[in-house]
Amino acid sequence: MTAASTPPCGPRTARPARRLSGLLAAAPDKSVSHRAMMFSALAAGTSRITNLLESADVMATARAVAALGARVHRDSPGVWTVTGDGRWSSPAAPLDLGNAGTGVRLLMGAAARFDLEAVFTGDASLSSRPMARVLDPLAAMGARSDSRNGRLPARLFGSSRLQPIDYAPPVASAQVKSAILLAGLGAQGETIVREAHATRGHTETMGPLYGADMDAEPDGAGGLTVRVRGGRTLTPHDLAVPGDPSSAAFAIAAALVTPDSAVTLTGVMDNPARSGLYAVLREMGADLVITPAGACAGERLVDLSARSGMLTGIEIGESRAPSMIDEYPILAVIAAFAQGVTVMKGLAELRAKESDRLAASAAMLSANGVRVELGADYLVVHGCGAGGAPGGGRVETHHDHRLAMSGLVLGLGAREPVTVDDVAMIATSYPGFFGDMAQLGAQIT
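User: That's the sequence. What structure does it adopt?
Assistant: C-alpha cells below.
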C-alpha cells in the first residue's frame, strides 16, 4: 500500500551557494493530503486522490484508515484510490502514527463518532505532545478515553450517539478544530467551533466536497465560527492535492538569502490562513511576485517567484501567528540575513510542536553567530545585514523536520557551511526536499 523509499539520515552539511535558480512544482500539501485520505475513508464509495503527498506522516494516516476498515490502494506515484462504507470498526492493533500530529489528532476526532475502541500511539516526539486539547472536547461529546497525562498512548472509546457541543478552543489550533468537526459529522445535532483567531480551514473547505453539511463564517475581528450538522452519510469525491505553502517556503527562503538567486515555485496553495509568511516577507521588502494559477480541491493556487535582495527587519504581532505557525523557524533564518531587528510575538504554541521550536530556532541561530533574544512567547533576531549570517555551526534538530530544513537553508546563504545533526525526519513532510534543492543548485553533502 505505501510508497517504498529510503530517506536520507544522519548529519548533512549545506555549503554556501553562489547562485540558486530554477523552476519547481511545489510539493503536495501535507495538511490537505491527511484530510483527503480521511474524508475518502469516511465516505461510502470510492474516491480518487491525485498528487497525494507520499510522506511518512501521510503514509501513517493511510495505514491507520486501512486498519479502521477502509480499502486503500496506491495506483501509481501520487495517485491513490480509497474505498469506504461509511463505517469504521475497532482496529486489530494499536494505530501507530509515527510523528504525525495532524494525523493522530484528526483521526481521534474522526474515529470518535463510531462504536469502536482504538489505541493511538506514536514516536517519542509525538508522545511528548499534548493530546488533552483534543480528548477533552471529545469527552464532552461522549467519547471516553484513557491516556497517560493527556499524552500518547491513548485509548479511545467512540460512540455512535455523540452529542453536539458549542466549543471555543483555548489555543489557536486547526488540529483541535478539525478533530471536533470530524466528530461532529456523527453527532445528533449542530456542533459549533468558535475560534478567536481563524486557523487553516482545510477541513471546512473539504468537508462539503464530500457531502458534509458544514460552513464557516468570519466574525469580523479575525475570528471564525464553524458549524457542522451531523447525520449525513459522506459521498466519495475525486480531488487533486494543491502545493504546500509551508514546504514551498524553504526554496523561497533559500532564494531570498542566497546572492544572485531567482527561484519560482508553481501550484502553491493560496489560503489566507496559510499565507502569513508571504505577506510578512513582502513587508520586509522581499522581491516576491505572486501570480494566480487556478484552483484545485476548493483552494486557490498561485505561482511564487523570489529573487535575492536586502530585507529589512520588522515587528510581527501575535495576531499573525495562526496563519504562519509552521513557518517561524524558516522566518527566523530569513530574519538573520535582514538589515535591522525582527521581533516575532505570540509564539507560545511553538513550544508544543515536534520540538520546542521556539527555543530550538533561537539555538540554531546562536550556534551560527546570529544574536537573538528569547522569551516565553517571543523571539528577537538581530539581522546581520549585507554581510550575511556567519554560519559555521551545528544545528541540533531535536528530530524536527522544519528545524532540519531551516538549518540547511541557513547554510546555503551563510558565509560558512552549516551542519544539521540528522535529516531522517524531513521525510515526514517533504520527502523531495533534497532533490528539489539539488535541482536549484544547492550543495548539501
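Residues 12-28+242-444 form a domain with the UDP-n-acetylglucosamine1-carboxyvinyl-transferase; Chain fold (CATH 3.65.10.10).
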